UniProtKB/TrEMBL annotation:
GO molecular function per UniProt: electron transfer activity; FMN binding; oxidoreductase activity, acting on NAD(P)H as acceptor; oxidoreductase activity, acting on NAD(P)H, quinone or similar compound as acceptor
Enzyme Commission code(s) on record: 1.6.5.-, 1.7.1.17
Role noted for this protein: Quinone reductase that provides resistance to thiol-specific stress caused by electrophilic quinones.
Subunit field text: Homodimer.
Protein name: FMN dependent NADH:quinone oxidoreductase
Catalytic activity: 2 a quinone + NADH + H(+) = 2 a 1,4-benzosemiquinone + NAD(+); N,N-dimethyl-1,4-phenylenediamine + anthranilate + 2 NAD(+) = 2-(4-dimethylaminophenyl)diazenylbenzoate + 2 NADH + 2 H(+)
Listed SUPFAM superfamilies: Flavoproteins (SSF52218)
Manner of cofactor binding, per the entry note: Binds 1 FMN per subunit.
Organism per entry: Epilithonimonas zeae
InterPro entries: Flavodoxin_fold, Flavoprotein-like_sf, FMN-dep_NADH:Q_OxRdtase_AzoR1, NADH:quinone_OxRdtase_FMN_depd
Enzyme category, top tier: oxidoreductase
Annotated binding of FMN, by residue: 10, 16-18, 96-99
Length: 200
């Protein structure tokens, strides 16, 4: 049995290429693992708050000293992290926004990147605590970033890979619907991304 976590980040619904791509990734995972259990974390309908002082203070206060408010903040963060820990397969729909990830995904990662939960430090430096997971990234962009002069502008896919690599998730596949704003490429960009999907 595979637990699958689908993280959705495009505020667009029917028009969203990353959702369409991510949904096909999910369909293909379900074809491969008929007993897959799917959980959706839609960051657009249920966004993580922007990190403020109360959140940061909570994360750095020992649990036994938490106020009632801090207990609830801590539980919220721990629940997000539990979802990640329980997942065997994680699918992230990731539209390119100003060369990076949507703010909703960035905010989410501020609540999941916690020492002692998703990573730890020891005498050898940082060590990821989420192991044996597969990550699929369903990326959508107006321009092209897989090759060419704008490759260096991509702070989306490499960023997600870095954060999840830091968590210990190194098995990552990326599917791209890219060039969605470029005439001559846009017409087939989503189809090309969908055709590239391989569930390994
Ligand atoms: C706020 C915003 C910022 C964007 N920034 C970029 C960008 O930096 N580079 C790019 O190639 N496309 C950019 N785009 C285009 C989107 O990446 C493209 O429309 C993509 O399909 C969005 O994903 P979605 O279809 O899943 O909503 C941007 C779109 C929006 C709405």
């Amino acid at each position: 049995m595979k637990n699958v976590l689908h993280i959705i980040t495009s505020p667009r619904k029917d028009l969203s290429a990353s959702r369409k791509l991510g949904n096909v990734v999910i369909e293909k995972i379900q074809e491969k693992y008929s007993d897959a259990v799917l959980k959706e974390r839609d960051l657009t309908t249920n966004p993580t708050p922007l990190l403020d002082e109360s959140h940061i203070n909570t994360f750095f206060t020992p649990a036994e000293n938490h106020s009632t408010e801090q207990q609830s903040i801590n539980k919220y963060s721990e629940d997000l992290i539990s979802e990640l820990k329980e997942a065997d397969i994680i699918v992230i729909d990731s539209p390119m926004y100003n060369f990076s990830v949507p703010a909703t995904l960035r905010a989410y990662l501020d609540f999941t990147s916690r020492a002692g939960y998703t990573f730890k430090y020891d005498e050898n430096g940082p060590k990821g605590l989420l192991n044996d997971k597969k990550l699929y990234i369903a990326f959508a962009s107006g321009n092209i970033y897989s090759e060419g002069p704008f490759q260096v502008f991509d702070s989306n896919v490499p960023y997600i890979k870095n954060v999840f690599g830091f968590y210990g998730v190194s098995d990552v596949s990326v599917f791209r619907a890219e060039g969605l704003a470029i005439p001559g490429i846009m017409e087939n960009a989503l189809e090309k991304g969908i055709d590239s999907i391989v569930i390994d």
